[in-house]
Every structure is written in structure tokens, then in C-alpha cells.
Amino acid sequence: SNWQFFLLLSGKPLEGVGEAILVLSGKGGVGKSTVTVQIASSLKMLGHKVGILDIDLCGPSIPRMVGVEGCDVLTTPDGKWIPVSVNNDKNFSVISLAFFLDSKNDAVIWRGPKKNAMIKQLLTNIAWDVDYLIIDTPPGTSDEHISVMENIRDCPVKGAVLVTTPQMVAVDDVTRELTFCRRTGIKVLGIIENMSGFVCPNCSECSNIFATGGGQKLAEKYSVPFLGKVPIDPSLTKCLETGESYLERFSQSEGSKIMKNVAECF
Ligand code: ADP
């Protein structure tokens, strides 16, 4: 693939970015990418210029979610990658590792140095022009996270949003994320409890499929803000599977109300 060529051309990290927000989770499948897209959409709906940087090496899924899967990334004359616009709106754009992979599973078998080089590229070689950049990171706290932090040490980073599901197992994993943030000096903007209950489309009653309140308890225990609970929303799943008219459908979803409050706090 073509990324090695650009290694010589990397510029300053996160140039053209007003402020960066990291989205972290203890493990995969809790809705980190979903929350990334929701935060970005909410900030966009508040009138900001927003970008999403998808460096989830385990499964870069953002392009599919916002309907730009398989798009080509163009370059500026000085060799920077130009973010791909969502719905042809240049004030809502995405760069994902997925755009640079020959096959979806490529990155999974990469060794450390190659991962770190790619992360560096994605943090330093993009022609952003955004107020906020929401960064979707891999799950856990791996070498990749350290690599991210090393590269953006001197950048304006607003902080990290931690995503968990309500069960205690997921909550335990988030504890490690909190420790990571403390050690690396990233401010914790707060915890979001995703898949928190299921609102029945027929009777509007909320069933708590998993235990509830884990995220809130964790936030209290570590004195960090609790940003809210996002219920399981079948219409949201559907819109994320296809990416079709993403913003419009998202604005009607239950999660969008919560995320709007979250975005207004930033
Ligand atoms: P992660 O990035 O943590 O691996 P994803 O954001 O990819 O997780 O979410 C995993 C799956 O769960 C996706 O198919 C997504 O559409 C779905 N999902 C996440 N949050 C919700 C929610 N609140 N309601 C319905 N489906 C959700």
C-alpha cells in the first residue's frame, strides 16, 4: 500500500485542529466508534467544523458508519492527505486507517513498529481544518495508545471520553483507562454508559438488559463527570450498518439528545 511513501513527508502533529478529543474504551464492542460518531455529529449540529480520526487498528469501522466506506483519499500538492467529506460536507470529514488498507484485516497482523509508523502518519500528515477532532482509538491501553500520546504531547487536547457498558466487567476495564489518563496527563472529560437499557419501540418502557449504573458508580468512585446513559437503539444500529443519511437519522435517535448535552459541555 501507499503509506510508506509518505513517511518522509510528515508534518506537525494535528495541524489545523482546534482541539482534539480522544475516545477510549477498556475493550472492544462497547460502542466506542458509535460514541465517536455521535459526539462528532452533535458538535457538527451545534455548528462546529468537525473531523473524525479513526485509528482503531483492531477494526476501523467509522467509514462504514458514516457512509464513506471505500472512498479514495486525495492528497494536497505538498503530500498531505485530504479528509473525506461526509454527505459532501467539508465541515464534517473523516480520515480512517481503513482507507489505506488493502484488506479489512490487514492491520491486525501488523507488528508494533509498523503500527506506530502508521499512527504517526495519521496524526501528522492530514490537511485538517476543524474546530474539533474526535479520535477513535483502539480498545484497551496498548502500545498504540502510548504512541498516540507521544505524538500529540504538545497539541491542544481537550481530554478523553471513556465509554463503557453497564456491566461490572466492562467497568473494570475502564478503570485501567482512567489510570492511563492519569499517568499520561490527559484530562478525563467523563464517562458514557452505552447500551444502557433498551427502550421498547412498542410500549416505550425501558428494560435494563444488563445490570445498570456501573458507569455512574465508576464516575463517582474516581470523581470524574458522568456524561450520561445511551440506551440500545435498534434504529441507530440500522443506520450505522449502512451509513445511509447518517446525520438525519442520528438526529432523530435517542442517543442524540444525550450526546447533544455532552457536546454542549465541551
Ligand atoms: P466498538 O467501537 O467499541 O468496538 P462499536 O461502536 O463498533 O463498538 O459498536 C459495536 C456494535 O454495536 C455496532 O454494530 C453498533 O452499531 C452497535 N451499537 C453500539 N452502540 C449502540 C446503541 N446504543 N444502540 C444500538 N446499537 C449500538
UniProtKB/TrEMBL annotation:
Which GO biological process annotations does it have?
A: iron-sulfur cluster assembly
Q: What is its main location?
A: cytoplasm
Pfam families the UniProt entry points to: ParA
| GO MF term list | 4 iron, 4 sulfur cluster binding; ATP binding; ATP-dependent FeS chaperone activity; metal ion binding
Question: At the top level of its lineage, which domain of life is listed?
Answer: Eukaryota
Kindly state one GO CC term assigned in the UniProt record: centriole
InterPro entries from the UniProt entry: Mrp/NBP35_ATP-bd, P-loop_NTPase, YlxH/NBP35
Tell me yes or no: is Protein biosynthesis among this UniProt entry's keywords.
no
Keywords associated with the record: 4Fe-4S, ATP-binding, Cytoplasm, Iron, Iron-sulfur, Metal-binding, Nucleotide-binding
User: Cellular location of this protein?
Assistant: Cytoplasm, Cytoskeleton, Cilium axoneme; Cytoplasm, Cytoskeleton, Microtubule organizing center, Centrosome, Centriole
The UniProt record lists the keyword 4Fe-4S:
yes
Oligomeric state and interaction partners are given as:
Heterotetramer of 2 NUBP1 and 2 NUBP2 chains. Interacts with KIFC1. Interacts with NUBP1.
Functional note: Component of the cytosolic iron-sulfur (Fe/S) protein assembly (CIA) machinery. Required for maturation of extramitochondrial Fe-S proteins. The NUBP1-NUBP2 heterotetramer forms a Fe-S scaffold complex, mediating the de novo assembly of an Fe-S cluster and its transfer to target apoproteins. Negatively regulates cilium formation and structure.
Protein's UniProt name: Cytosolic Fe-S cluster assembly factor NUBP2
User: Which species is this record about?
Assistant: Armadillidium nasatum
* Name of the gene: NUBP2
